[in-house]
Design goal:
mainly alpha; 71 residues
Length: 71
């Protein structure tokens, strides 16, 4: 994620309603699931997409922790 995405995520997270789900990694998640569908659920063929998803999630969770610490 770049700085613009981080700022947009922070803003979106602050402004979201309590009942609205926000997942900035939704695109990566959908890509990995579509890859599984296309490849007959052979996880080995989708490894790169799973790595992208995990990295996105990791950065998102780190950003959320940072925002919580700042208050």
């Amino acid at each position: 994620m770049n700085e613009t995405q981080n700022h947009d995520i922070s803003k979106s997270f602050r402004e979201k309603k309590s009942s609205k789900f926000l997942d900035p990694c939704q695109k990566e998640s959908l890509n990995s699931m579509e890859c599984l569908d296309r490849n007959n659920y052979d996880k080995g063929k989708c490894k790169d997409l799973f790595i992208l998803y995990r990295e996105c999630k990791k950065k998102w969770l780190e950003k959320r922790r940072e925002l919580r610490r700042k208050g």
